[in-house]
Amino acid sequence: MNAPTTSPDRPDTPSKPHSAHWGVFSAAWKDGVLNVQPHPRDPDPNPLIQNFTNALDHPVRVTAPMVRRGWLERGPGPDASRGRDGYVQVGWDEALDLLAAELQRVKNAHGAQAVFGGSYGWSSAGRFHHAQSQVHRFLNTALGGYVRSVNSYSAGASAVILPHVLGSMDDVARRNVTWEQIVAHTDVVLAFGGMALKNSRVASGGISRHIERESMRQAAARGCRFINISPLASDFPLDAHAEWVQAVPGTDVALMLALVHELVINDWHDKAFLAEFCEGWDEFEAYLLGRVDGHAKNAGWASALCGLPASKIVEMARRLPGKRVLVTVAHSLQRAEHGEQPVWMAAVLAAALGQLGLPGGGYAYALGTLAHYGKRSNAVPVASLPQGVNGVKDFIPVARIADMLLHPGQPFDYNGKRMRYPHIRLAYWAGGNPFHHHQDLKRLTQAFATLDTFVVHEIGWTATARHADIVLPCTMTLEREDIGGAPTDPLLVAMHRIAAPNGQARDDYDIFADLSERLGARAAFTEGRNSGEWLRHLYEKTRAALQEKGLDAPSFDAFWERGELVLPQQDDDGGILRAFRNDPAGKPLPTPSGKVQISSETIAGFGYADCPGHPAWLPPRYAPTARHPLYLVANQPATRLHSQFDFGAHSVSQKRQGREVCTLHPQDAAARGIAEGDIVRLFNERGACLASAALSTGIMQGVAQLPTGAWYDPVHDADGNVTLCGHGNPNILTRDVGTSSLAQGCSGQLTTIQIERHDGVLPAIRTFEAPQPLRIST
Ligand SMILES: Nc1nc2c(c(=O)[nH]1)N[C@H]1C(S)=C(S)[C@@H](COP(=O)(O)OP(=O)(O)OC[C@H]3O[C@@H](n4cnc5c(=O)[nH]c(N)nc54)[C@H](O)[C@@H]3O)O[C@H]1N2
Ligand SMILES: Nc1nc2c(c(=O)[nH]1)N[C@H]1C(S)=C(S)[C@@H](COP(=O)(O)OP(=O)(O)OC[C@H]3O[C@@H](n4cnc5c(=O)[nH]c(N)nc54)[C@H](O)[C@@H]3O)O[C@H]1N2
Ligand SMILES: [Mo]
Predict the structure, then answer these.
(1) Which of 228, 307, 399, 569 lies at a CB distance of 3.0 to 4.6 Å from 376, suitable for a disulfide?
(2) How far apart are CA 428 and CA 116, in angstroms?
């Protein structure tokens, strides 16, 4: 269905600044059309900003509070009809009265530990209206707390393994090697998972200048070689002149082991560095050389696993010694079974080359996967909403949501601890889309069916909203004033209001303020401020820090008038790895030994078979089979951020027959009688979805790629069972298992499938149509 591209009722407006996770821009209404222009100093603007042009008045916006019929008629309680039920439109007062009473009931009957408020998701870029901060602050101040989630879908495995072996995620990913250093110093960038520009064009909180493309171009022009180890050629832009190395997905650790093996048998490894800066090399080397299991992890051994000729692996290793080598690992590699291993093993490879801590060398985990990385840090803080104190201690690793809801009270392992899943009665989501981010969506539906009550604030009728009991319409970013800023971007943006709210939508903040009132906690939640007063209050921290440094420190009004403020940044000092290299005794790493942990007694002590005491090749439990012979790469979409504005003009323009595009190799297509543009059915033991086939030699044979983010559009059979997603959401296919007992991270990047041409009836796409209320309660 086509969305309107004009809004005749919108008056003309002057151009005003605003910001999104994907770029800084200005927007103006002219003749009912919203014109969106990138920031004039952005060298490589992100086309995602065009998703805003038709978003404000799109028919899929939630325009009034809605309550699910079954919940309204039967009251709170487990209900398998979530996702298929109709909605009753209610007034704001009725909605908030019902919700406040239900929050009070759950708290009185079961305590705040029966409320799940993790509310994972990216929401919008403004720092005050950041929905997670809002919902967390509300639950803390008005309810006494909530069960939270830890870590992210981005970096679930690396956030847990890195502190054991090197340092915190922020230190290893954010404050480390910069693009400036690569341009000036690096000879070889060995990029596992590539450095796709689509990804590095995004940063939480906003990004004003997209410099990655030009940095790659300049580095390549100086002679730096980028090596793209990935199933997709497009994981580097042409500007980088990258060499494409096609290794079987999920086998990067085998390749890294073989590279280190080649270094060791030729005596090319940096023994002095390993002795002085690292702990546990000997134990690892015994494994590497096969003294433990009788298998040397050499090029021949790895060749059989990763599908590269042994000679190619040897040649790759030969090109490394004596060069300034930077190893990078995309987040994608660790969003997979045993995802901890490539993150750890890459650090060992960089250590064996003796490169950790050198300018432009060593290991920069996740560089190239987000615009946060490879940048200088700001020297002053930017606004953030204080979240208050959470009185509940229970938490889950974020991707264990369905396990928690389906198995209350059951034990699970996490980072050396044996924990139990809490029993959740009410889940509250604002600013995230679990039917985008989670795996095995049919299982997720069963999990949400166990709740007494599911509350969602949304701007649009996502599948998450369609599974909720109470759906509250919230404003989208263009309808609010906010401050945009990120710790690694020098531009603080005065995000002006571009449009009046659609329908009855209200700010998350105002919704929570009125709910707090009903729960007797308004003053605690608002501290007596309205949102305009909060912006001034939060800006003051930045202003005071600027003033303290003797820098230009404009008043809030002056900042608002200017529309932006350039913040000072710190020196490009290489972070903790450089400091450690320069002064190992004085600046030890924050690990048990103070050194790089090539092996870890701590991790070994946990006794996990799926995460041993040094990085190792662990054979996949879920490799391709005769029935499901293809790997599916379910990666980040190029046309939107996750599921946000999938109904937006740019995202929709890239779909075919309204469906998401699945890329596969011409030979894999030919073997299945599939031609360019055919609608195909992707399926496995968990589910199926439709997509439009695109044939390309830029994808490895044996691999298909379907990005995430198409809104889940389930088709039901007569018994109410989901037969497939007609739109192309890959998470109906992915497996809902943790990366390992250590981190329990999301493993959604890779799964195994079969593909066939779909000659049957094409279901209509209904996901961009709002459900019509069954009735309007007055
Ligand atoms: N198979 C597979 N699955 C994946 C991934 C993968 O690679 N493969 N990637 C994973 C990763 S890394 C991530 S980070 C997650 C992303 O998962 P999410 O962050 O949950 O995805 P988004 O689509 O960004 O969800 C944000 C939601 O917030 C809503 N929203 C926007 N602004 C506001 C607001 O002001 N208020 C409120 N209340 N709501 C608002 C949007 O409409 C949208 O529905 O997905 C993960 N899932
Ligand atoms: N346009 C856009 N940009 C985004 C996002 C978005 O949704 N849209 N999301 C943002 C977020 S929240 C995050 S966390 C980052 C995520 O960053 P990533 O998780 O790194 O991004 P992906 O695109 O999922 O994966 C990068 C590439 O890794 C390759 N790959 C997959 N499996 C393997 C493997 O086993 N081995 C190797 N060597 N390569 C493999 C795939 O070809 C894939 O294109 O992206 C951010 N940037
Ligand atoms: Mo992410």
Answers:
(1) 569
(2) 6
Is the C-beta atom of 250 inside 6 A of ligand 2? Answer: yes
610: DSSP letter = T
Report which secondary-structure segment, H or E, holds 695.
strand 688-695
Tens digits of per-residue pLDDT, 586-607? Answer: 999 999 999 999 999 999 999 9
182-369 topology per CATH: Dimethylsulfoxide Reductase; domain 2 (3.40.228)
What are the extents of the domains in the chain? 16-52, 66-153+387-566, 182-369, 630-757
Identify the sign of the CA torsion 243, 231, 156, 468: positive
pTM over 0.90: yes
**Residue range 321-331, pLDDT digits in tens:** 999 999 999 99
Structure tokens at 302: 């790895």
- Classify domain 630-757 by CATH number: 2.40.40.20
- Options 3.40.1710.10, 3.40.50.740, 3.60.20.10, 3.40.50.10490; CATH for 66-153+387-566 is 3.40.50.740
Ligand 1 within 6 A of CB of 642: yes
Residues near ion ligand 3 (Cβ under 5 Å): 154
Q: Looking at residue 1, what is its pLDDT?
A: 43
Closest CA to 453 of 118, 778, 100: 100
The phi-psi region of residue 337 (left if phi > 0; otherwise alpha if psi is between -120 and 50; otherwise beta) is: beta
pLDDT value of residue 4? 55
Please say whether the beta carbons of 186 and 360 come within 8 A.
yes
pLDDT tens-digit profile of 172-208? 999 999 999 999 999 999 999 999 999 999 999 999 9
* Strands 325-329 and 630-633, sheet pairing: unpaired
DSSP-derived letter for residue 558 is H
Active site residues: 120, 122
Cα(410) to centroid(ligand 1), Å: 28
Between the CA of residue 352 and those of 306, 314, 344, 669, what are the distances in Å? 21, 16, 13, 41
The answer, yes or no, to whether residue 762 has pLDDT greater than 90, is yes
